[in-house]
Specification:
Elements lengths: L7 H19 L6 H19 L4 H8 L7 H8 E6 L12 E8 L2 E8 L5 H6 L7 H17 L3 E7 L6 H5 L2 H14 L4 E10 H8 L3 E5 L3 E3 L3 H9 L5 H8 L3 H7 L4 E3 L10 H19 L4 H13 L1 H7 L1
Parallel strand pairs: 3-4, 4-5, 5-6, 5-7, 6-8
Antiparallel strand pairs: 1-2, 2-3
Length: 319
C-alpha cells in the first residue's frame, strides 16, 4: 500500500497491526489477534475521519494515487472481446491513448481512454497518460468509425493534461485537441464519459465533451493543475492548496456547476483500497447512462449535447 502524506498516521497503525500478525506467524504460541483487531478498528475509525471531509488539495492527491485502477483495469474487467486499434493513420501510435472495439454488457461499443501505466516501465511507455497529437487523432478516427457503424462511445479520462513537448507542439497539439472536442459534439451516437482519476485541461475535455459525464467521488476535473495555476497567478507553485480551493475542481463542486452529471461513490479510503468495487460501480453507472440515451434520435442527440454545453455558463453563474 502506498500512503499519501495525510495518511501517515494511518500507515503507522496499519503497519503495527501487520507487524503483530507477522510475529504471530513465526511463533505459534503468541496470541495477538485481539490486539491486532483493536488496531484494525482504530485504523478504520481514523480512515473514516480522514476521508469524511477531504479538502480539494487532498482530493487531488487521492485522484493521482498510483494504486488507483487505470484505464486498462476497467477495460479488462468491464468489456469483453476488446480489440485494440492503433495509430492515427498519419504519424504514429500514441500509447498514452488506448482504444478499440469491445462489448459492454454484450452491446458493441467503442471504448477510448487515457492510460497512465502502473509501474516505472509502463508509465514511461504510456507517457504518464499525457497524450500527443497522434493520440487525439486516433481518438477522432475511432469516434468517426463509431458514428459510421452506430456504436456508442465510452471514454475513460485520466490525464494530467496533453503533453506539452516541443514535438507535440510542432505536430499541432492544440489543433488535435480542438478537432477531438469538435468530433465529440458532432457524432450522432451516445457518448458517455467517466473521469476515473485526473481530468486535466484540454487533454481531458477532448474526451469528456459527452452526453453524460460521470466522475468518481475523489476524482478531479480542471482547466489547469493546482500547481500550474499557482505558478501562473502567484509565481509560487507551493500555493497549490489555495489554487485547488479556488479552481472548484472536485466532483462535488462540478456537480453543483452542472459540469458533472453523476458522482460515482468510491470505497472508504478511495478507489485504491477496493479496485473491484470501484470498477463494478463504474460499470453500473455506464450502464445506466447508456440506457438513458439508447433510443434517442440522432439529430435530437446531437442537439441536446450541444445545448448542454452552451447552457453550462448560465448554470455556473447561478451556482
Amino acid at each position: 500500500m502506498n500512503y499519501l502524506d495525510f495518511e501517515k498516521p494511518l500507515a503507522e497503525i496499519e503497519g503495527k497491526a501487520e507487524e503483530l500478525r507477522a510475529l504471530a506467524r513465526g511463533n505459534t504460541e503468541m496470541d495477538v489477534e485481539a490486539e491486532a483487531k483493536a488496531l484494525d478498528k482504530k485504523a478504520q475509525d481514523l480512515l473514516k475521519d480522514l476521508y469524511k471531509s477531504l479538502t480539494p488539495w487532498r482530493k487531488c492527491q487521492v485522484a493521482r494515487h498510483p494504486d488507483r485502477p487505470h484505464c486498462r483495469d476497467y477495460i479488462n474487467a468491464l468489456f469483453t472481446e476488446y480489440t485494440p486499434l492503433a495509430g492515427d493513420r498519419n504519424f504514429a501510435d500514441d500509447h498514452a491513448v488506448m482504444g478499440g472495439l469491445a462489448r459492454f454488457n454484450d452491446q458493441p461499443v467503442v471504448v477510448i481512454g487515457h492510460e497512465k501505466g502502473n509501474d516505472t516501465k509502463s508509465r514511461i511507455e504510456h507517457n504518464f497518460g499525457m497524450a500527443r497529437p497522434e493520440g487525439y487523432r486516433k481518438a477522432v478516427r475511432l469516434m468517426d468509425m463509431a458514428d459510421r457503424f452506430g456504436l456508442p462511445v465510452i471514454t475513460l479520462v485520466d490525464t494530467p493534461g496533453a503533453y506539452p513537448g516541443k514535438g507535440a507542439e510542432e505536430r499541432g497539439q492544440s489543433e488535435a485537441i480542438a478537432r477531438s472536442t469538435q468530433k465529440c459534439l458532432e457524432i450522432g451516437v451516445p457518448l458517455i464519459s467517466v473521469i476515473i482519476g485526473e481530468g486535466g485541461s484540454g487533454g481531458a475535455v477532448a474526451f469528456a465533451t459527452a452526453d453524460q459525464l460521470a466522475m468518481l467521488e475523489h476524482s478531479i476535473y480542471s482547466v489547469i493543475s493546482p500547481e500550474g495555476c499557482a505558478s501562473i497567478l502567484w509565481k509560487d507553485a507551493e500555493r497549490m492548496r489555495e489554487a485547488a480551493e479556488a479552481l472548484r475542481l472536485t466532483a462535488q463542486d462540478l456537480e453543483k456547476l452542472g459540469v458533472c452529471d453523476r458522482i460515482i461513490p468510491e470505497p472508504m479510503g478511495g478507489a485504491q483500497r477496493d479496485k473491484a468495487a470501484t470498477i463494478a460501480a463504474v460499470g453500473q453507472a455506464i450502464d445506466a447512462m447508456l440506457r438513458k440515451h439508447k433510443d434517442m434520435d440522432r439529430k435530437k442527440l446531437i442537439a441536446a449535447r450541444r445545448k448542454k454545453y452552451l447552457d453550462l455558463g448560465a448554470k455556473g453563474l447561478a451556482a
